[in-house]
Design goal:
mainly alpha; Growth Hormone, Chain: A; 18 helices; globular
Length: about 400
């Protein structure tokens, strides 16, 4: 149950619906650019390096926004902190609608900060309000994240054609669902934090000395890097194989939509297991194999490959959020661990799209970038073998 500023309490179903709407709006700012990336580069006379920076900046800002998680919990509370993040997302989306590279970069950065702040607070809310069903609740809002990602990836190019106002208007249209989320979340935003859910500054500092916390952060960051490489570069890779912008966007959207069931099913099953190591390694292996199939396999199998790859990648992302909740003892430690894992993790994740773009520019093809994708997945698996153990932060020294 969640209290509001007037002391009333909302049922878990109503809270869950509101969280789902919030989660839906935490990815369109990221996935709407990729399908238009080739057009943006052509219209602005940019280089591949500029395109790589554009796909990297919002992910880097996710990490910076995540660093504000613990202070936001202490000063505002989880609920009002989520609202503040949503308002930043909305403002950034509107800013992108002004057109031009400066507004596009500034709006992407502001939206990234807001996504980072709201994103790190959601695990604390799950631990507080849905602690008995952490895997299922995490899977549901992760599924909503994936649906939002897929909707933006698939509809942005058709919206650009329908509006006839250029790429800036197509990007700005995603401010409408963000506005709906802001309005819907206002009744849940209380202005004072719950003391038990506010991690102390000392606790947050101690967490950075925990090997298990670093393993959780490493897994969260590296598996997220795989997703942001796909969001930013899969449309361009598919266009490089001869698909037009619309078909490439649809395939990317199909893969993103397929992440939704993966994000629901895999964390729910993994949360009920003794530990999550097998689920982590298996999901990463499938993600890499099928990404390679999309880049180099037969074109007739692209639809199936996109679905399977999306399911596996959604499972990875759901596992990243689930281990944050499972490795924490309470809402306070979940908030602190979420801020570290997503703050540091997204800063680490931002290197993936940038490195992928540079590898493509240097090599002129997709073989080197795909090898980089596999190397990132290997690093995620190594971290995941530690993060998936049945331990809590502060307990790792005693062994599994």
């Amino acid at each position: 149950m969640t209290a509001t500023t007037d002391g009333k309490r909302h049922g878990p179903l109503l809270v869950g619906l509101a969280v789902t709407l919030v989660a839906f709006n935490l990815r369109p700012a990221l996935t709407s650019v990729g399908p238009l990336l080739t057009q943006i580069v052509a219209d602005t006379g940019s280089t591949a390096t500029t395109a790589a920076a554009l796909t990297t900046l919002p992910v880097l800002c996710l990490g910076l926004g995540g660093a504000f998680g613990p202070p936001a919990i202490r000063r505002l509370g989880v609920d009002a902190g989520i609202l503040a993040g949503l308002v930043a997302v909305l403002a950034g989306l509107l800013l992108r609608g002004l057109g031009g590279l400066p507004a596009l970069f500034a709006g992407s950065a502001l939206s990234g900060l807001g996504i980072g702040l709201s994103g790190v607070l959601l695990p604390a809310l799950v631990k507080r309000d849905f602690s008995r069903h952490a895997g299922r609740a995490t899977g549901l809002y992760t599924m909503a994240l994936c649906i939002g990602a897929g909707t933006a990836a698939g509809l942005t190019v058709p919206l650009e054609h329908w509006l006839g106002q250029g790429w800036a208007a197509a990007l700005a249209i995603w401010a409408l669902p963000a506005l709906a989320a802001v309005v819907a979340w206002i009744p849940f935003a209380r202005l004072r934090p719950t003391p038990a859910a506010a991690p102390s500054a000392k606790a947050a500092v101690r967490l950075w000395q925990e090997p298990l916390a670093w393993q959780v952060a490493g897994f969260m960051g590296l598996q997220s890097s795989l997703a942001y490489i796909q969001f930013g570069w899969l449309p361009a890779l598919l266009q490089g194989r001869g698909l037009d912008a619309v078909d490439a966007g649809y395939l990317t959207a199909l893969s993103a939509f397929a992440q939704a069931p993966g994000a629901l099913v895999v964390p729910t099953l993994a949360a009920g297991a003794r530990d999550q190591r097998g689920w982590i390694v298996g999901s990463l292996f499938v993600t890499v194999v099928v990404f390679a199939a999309l880049g180099f396999g037969p074109t007739k199998g692209m639809v199936v490959a996109a679905i399977v790859q999306g399911f596996a990648l959604g499972g990875c992302f759901g596992l990243g959020l689930t281990v944050i909740v499972l490795r924490a003892r309470d809402a306070a430690s979940a908030g602190a661990l979420s801020a570290m894992a997503q703050g540091f993790g997204y800063a680490l994740a931002s290197l993936g799209p940038f490195g992928f773009g540079l590898a493509h520019e240097v090599s002129g093809g997709w073989a080197w970038p795909t090898l980089l994708f596999a190397a990132v997945a290997l690093g995620a698996a190594i971290c995941g073998l530690g993060a998936g153990r049945n331990l809590h932060v502060g307990q790792a020294a005693r062994g599994p």
